[in-house]
Design brief:
Keywords: Cell membrane, Membrane, Transmembrane, Transmembrane helix, Transport
Distance between the termini: 65 Å
InterPro entries: Na/Glc_symporter_sf (IPR038377), Na/solute_symporter (IPR001734), Na/solute_symporter_CS (IPR018212), Sodium:Solute_Symporter (IPR050277)
Radius of gyration: 22 Å
Transmembrane segments: 6-23, 44-66, 72-95, 116-140, 152-173, 180-197, 217-238, 259-283, 303-332, 353-373, 379-401, 408-429, 435-455
Membrane topology: Multi-pass membrane protein
Order of helices and strands: HHHHHHHHHHHHHHHHHHH
Subcellular location: Membrane
Number of helices: 19
Length: 485
């Protein structure tokens, strides 16, 4: 295992080195939070694919393949569909807004007053997303070093917090590009063909497994529909995803670079399901489907290759964890703390220090929460239920429906969020009903209250249309632009 350990250690040291390099470059708020809005197509595509394909997509995707066969690809497939929809239909307009957070977009569209409440919901989502990614370190380091769960979480989480705090989005972008390459080589080019060969090829896999394993809809129509609601729509509105859109050099980069990343996700989804199906042939009686990835890597791959593939799993977790962490800190500082204490008067350099401090504080909180929690699936479900149930309608409504008002948006966030929480308490966290009914309640509240309240001031809508068209937007936006009430 010495060679495998060396590969992992070199990889981790490289992540820290890039954090140090990023610190030298992140001299302004724009550089720190959105990489100066300067990413070209190649780097944008790689980093976008890296953040959406995390531990759940890699370890969990293989686990679903082990449990359901090729239809286990649907979870990651719907993530790719969401990224494609965002890129084709919305990303160009989002990039032209030149904001830092989703809540700033809501303030621009509705004329203010929606920021703090929507910020709290988005903060809860990004926090839980960061926590679930951090918990996944325990699985990987247990395979690598037979390490205690708490120590593994602290080690992996501390490395991510360190490079994210040092260089912000520049560090995260650089590390994500490395992580994208490592995942591509480790999972697609090495683990996938080796797993299929070890399982005897597709003909042997078909002979050994039930036909349901090769049914594209074998996982069930209701499950696929729920994945679409949670993950496809979640990709459209998450702060972690939007913050990457804000890094694009142009709206064209955001559109076509994101389309490439979404297409990559579809291929990654199928690869994970095939690897899991091969693992079912090789190890038909594993204790848990989520053990499939670690087991096939540990037992079937040669020395050196094993280290690279485990580094790929680590890369998947780190990319999502760092993206969720900077999103969580950005929302906490810019949408909640800054608004509660009043307008920020400091300059760009002062704001870099403030955002850096918030990443450190949020990072410590994420590590502590990850140590306290055990169930990754439940935490992730809570995160996406809150996001979709509370924020999908006011965000898409703001982009698509002129008659939507700030009162309708606030009602939608509050009613949808409370409905999801109450329904999770009643039906159970993993039930499908909370997101179904919560989304319907949010939509009903948005439409009813918007129609019952005065239309948004025309001056606000004119300013909004100007920003969507890329006109009238400041080079750097430190504060949300609030229209007169």
């Amino acid at each position: 295992m010495a060679i495998d350990y060396t590969v992992i250690v070199v990889y981790l040291l490289g992540m820290l080195a890039m954090g140090w390099w990023g610190m030298r470059r992140a001299k302004s708020k724009s550089e720190f939070l959105v990489a100066g809005r300067r990413l070209g197509p190649a780097m944008y595509s790689g980093t976008m694919a890296a953040i959406v394909l995390g531990g759940a997509s890699t370890i969990g995707g293989v686990g679903l393949g082990y449990q359901y066969g090729l239809s286990g690809a649907w979870m990651v497939f719907t993530i790719g569909l969401g990224l494609l929809a965002l890129s084709v239909f919305f990303s160009a307009r989002i990039a032209r807004l030149k904001v830092y957070t989703v809540s700033e977009m809501l303030d621009l569209r509705y004329g203010g007053r929606a920021g703090v409440i929507s910020g709290v919901v988005m903060w809860a989502y990004t926090l839980m997303l960061a926590v679930t990614s951090t918990i996944a370190y325990a699985t990987i380091f247990d395979v690598l070093f037979d390490m205690n769960r708490t120590v593994a979480i602290i080690l992996g989480g501390s490395i991510v917090v360190a490079y994210s705090t040092l260089g912000g989005m520049w560090s995260i972008t650089l590390t994500d590009m490395v992580q994208f390459v490592v995942k591509t080589v480790g999972v697609l080019l090495l683990l996938l063909p080796i797993a299929v060969v070890k399982a005897g090829g597709f003909s042997e896999m078909k002979d050994q497994l039930p036909t349901s394993y090769f049914d594209p809809l074998g996982i069930g129509g209701e499950t696929i529909f729920t994945y679409v609601l949670i993950y496809t729509f979640g990709m459209l509105i998450g702060q972690d995803i939007w913050q990457r859109v804000f890094t694009a050099r142009s709206d064209r980069t955001a559109k076509w670079g994101g389309t490439v990343a979404g297409s990559y996700c579809l291929a990654y989804a199928l690869a994970g399901a095939v690897i899991g199906t091969a693992a079912k042939v090789l190890y038909p009686k594993l204790g848990s489907p989520d053990d499939a990835f670690a087991t096939i890597v540990k037992d079937e791959l040669p020395v050196g290759v094993r280290g690279l593939v485990l580094a790929a799993a680590l890369a998947a977790v780190m990319s999502t964890s760092s993206g969720a962490l900077i999103a969580c800190a950005t929302v906490a500082n810019n949408d909640i703390w800054s608004r509660l204490r009043g307008k920020v008067t400091g300059g760009e350099r002062d704001e870099v220090a403030g955002n850096r401090a918030f990443i450190l504080i949020m990072g410590v909180g994420v590590i502590g929460t990850a140590i306290a929690l055990n169930n990754v699936v439940e935490a992730l479900t809570v995160a996406y239920n809150l996001l979709v149930g509370g924020l999908l309608v006011p965000i898409l409504g703001g982009l698509l429906w002129k008659r939507g008002t700030v009162h309708g948006a606030l009602a939608s966030v509050i009613v949808g969020g409370l409905a999801v929480i109450g329904l999770m308490a009643g039906y159970g966290i993993l039930a499908n009903e909370p997101v179904y009914y919560g989304l319907l309640a949010s939509l009903a509240a948005y439409v009813a209250v918007s129609l019952a309240t005065p239309a948004t001031d025309e001056a606000v809508l004119t300013a909004w249309r100007e920003r969507l068209a890329g006109r009238g937007a400041p080079e750097l936006v430190s504060e949300p632009v609030l229209a007169p009430q």
